[in-house]
Amino acid sequence: MNQLQATGNTGKSAINPIVIIGALFFIFGFVTWLNSVLIPYLKIACELNHFQAYLVAFAFYIAYFVMAPISTKVLKIFGFKNGMSIGLLVMAVGALLFIPAALSRTYALFLLGLFIQGTGLAILQTASNPYITILGPAESAAKRISIMGICNKLAGGLAPIILGAVVLSNADALTARIASLPDADRVLELNELAARVIFPYCCIIAVLTILAFIIYRSHLPEIDTDKEDEVIGSANKDKTSLFQFPHLILGFITMFLYVGVEVIAGDTIISYGASQGINLVTAKYFTMGTMTCMIIGYTLGIVLIPKYIKQENAMKICALLGLVFSLGAIFTQSYLSVAFIALLGLANSLVYPAIWPLAIVGLGRFTKAASSLLVMGLAGGAVIPVIYGALADKWNPQQAYWVMIPCYFMIWYYAVAGHKLGKK
């Protein structure tokens, strides 16, 4: 029995919640994958090296680790629905900081805005992921999250194209011209480039605020995860800590590494394409390739899970594909190498949908705290890409992709055995 059934709601009544959560996942994707454009954009506008540029991902994703415990408190006080509205408003505040950051061309202020956006997303993710997981049978949770993933990655594919068309227009010619300008003229050109980001982020602020109001006024059902222990029975009666659930702790580690490689596949592909001699006017479309591959994977998940394949088996296949495509990117060149990075979207697609149900199944009253822990795992998107950036400076952007190999091995292990540890 799931919580919606327990509170007397029918399967038909779950349509509206799924549509609303789908809209949230669209917003997640749009805001998150703007980073793939912000990295090369700020690298030019603020005159950064690779390591400094990938602090964009660090500032955004480290908020998940730092603020996830606060997210749990927000949900306990305000509940799932109101917590989602609060998260959207916090994101709007973070987007608002981009205006003074652009006007002053202050990189630290951009990073602060990204951290605050990440904080809002931490609240949203802590609420929405267990919500969609609990919204129906556990064995089909990966299918529901795959539907959410399509919303997420559709937005993720559109976001870089839309923002890139504004902020990276004529970026290659501008970069070449800036190099030959005297200091005063170079500063004027860079200030003009920085100001390009203001209008898109004003639009984002408006959308986030409107969606926060819509969710606040909606009839999303509140789910009481504490009552799940009544269904589970005495299994959790003597449990006092999340550390008594080994499958959850390993799920956190897997989530950390997975988000790291997902962010690398989406956020580095534009800059990597440029490092392979492909101009930015063309490269700005490459993130769409990664997102398209993820959407294909999610669609396969919707069709195949759980009727033809278990979610853990889908995760095993994805991990092995991740290893193959990573090696393909490392040992080939130019467009073929970039294509392997895009194909990592297919390899990554069904990992996230599988981790959530495998990690939080049977946790009962610990579900909100466990969700917070898994959201903290999204900080892998802060750490792994920065390691990639440091290796790109030390070696080169292509050889830096070796950082993904141990990550995919861990994902494979969790799918094979890790998710079973401690379960009876």
Extended strand count: 0
Query: Fraction of residues in helices?
Result: over 70%
Percent strand: under 5%
So, the CATH homologous superfamily?
MFS general substrate transporter like domains
Q: What is the rounded Rg?
A: 21 Å
Q: What would you call the shape? A: globular
The chain-level structural class is mainly alpha
Give the ordered list of helices and strands.
HHHHHHHHHHHHHHHHHHHHHH
For the termini, the CA-CA separation is 19 Å
Sheet of most strands:
none
SSE layout:
Blueprint: H1 3-6, H2 15-32, H3 35-45, H4 50-53, H5 55-96, H6 98-104, H7 107-134, H8 141-167, H9 171-179, H10 183-195, H11 198-217, H12 228-232, H13 246-267, H14 269-275, H15 280-283, H16 286-304, H17 311-331, H18 334-348, H19 351-360, H20 367-376, H21 380-394, H22 404-416
Helix pairs in contact: 2-7, 2-8, 2-11, 3-8, 3-10, 5-7, 5-11, 5-20, 5-21, 6-7, 7-8, 7-20, 8-16, 8-19, 13-18, 13-19, 13-20, 13-21, 13-22, 16-18, 17-18, 17-19, 17-22
